[in-house]
UniProtKB/TrEMBL annotation:
<dbReference type="Pfam" id="PF00348">
    <property type="entry name" value="polyprenyl_synt"/>
</dbReference>
<keyword id="KW-0808">Transferase</keyword>
<keyword id="KW-0414">Isoprene biosynthesis</keyword>
<keyword id="KW-0479">Metal-binding</keyword>
<dbReference type="InterPro" id="IPR000092">
    <property type="entry name" value="Polyprenyl_synt"/>
</dbReference>
<dbReference type="GO" id="GO:0008299">
    <property type="term" value="P:isoprenoid biosynthetic process"/>
</dbReference>
<dbReference type="GO" id="GO:0004659">
    <property type="term" value="F:prenyltransferase activity"/>
</dbReference>
<dbReference type="InterPro" id="IPR033749">
    <property type="entry name" value="Polyprenyl_synt_CS"/>
</dbReference>
<dbReference type="GO" id="GO:0046872">
    <property type="term" value="F:metal ion binding"/>
</dbReference>
<keyword id="KW-0460">Magnesium</keyword>
<protein>
    <recommendedName>
        <fullName>Polyprenyl synthetase</fullName>
    </recommendedName>
</protein>
<dbReference type="InterPro" id="IPR008949">
    <property type="entry name" value="Isoprenoid_synthase_dom_sf"/>
</dbReference>
Length: 97
């Protein structure tokens, strides 16, 4: 990848990584242990500073959506070649586990 393409991919990686963490924090609050396949509410019990704890649930959802949109925007220079990466970013918003 050229320098500018590399920077775009780095931006994508940062946005999708942070978005994944925000989505994981939201699921820890909203989903059941059975649904998650792991213990739900663990972060709250441990007093961790999660996104929902700091921002609230609605703002955390908005942040996850914003990060997914920004990840997709970072892929613009790649056109159709990056379609699978776009789908991955949007799947973060629909993640249930």
């Amino acid at each position: 990848a050229k320098g500018s393409q590399f920077n775009c991919l780095c931006e994508y990686g940062l946005k999708i990584g942070l978005g994944f963490q925000v989505a994981d924090d939201i699921l820890d609050v909203c989903a059941s242990s059975e649904h998650l396949g792991k213990t739900a509410g663990k972060d709250t019990k441990r007093g961790k500073a999660t996104y929902p704890a700091v921002l609230g649930l609605e703002k955390s959802r908005q942040l996850a959506a914003k990060l997914a949109d920004e990840a997709v925007a970072a892929l613009e220079p790649f056109g159709k070649k990056a379609e699978s990466l776009r789908k991955l970013a949007m799947a973060l918003l629909e993640r249930t586990r």
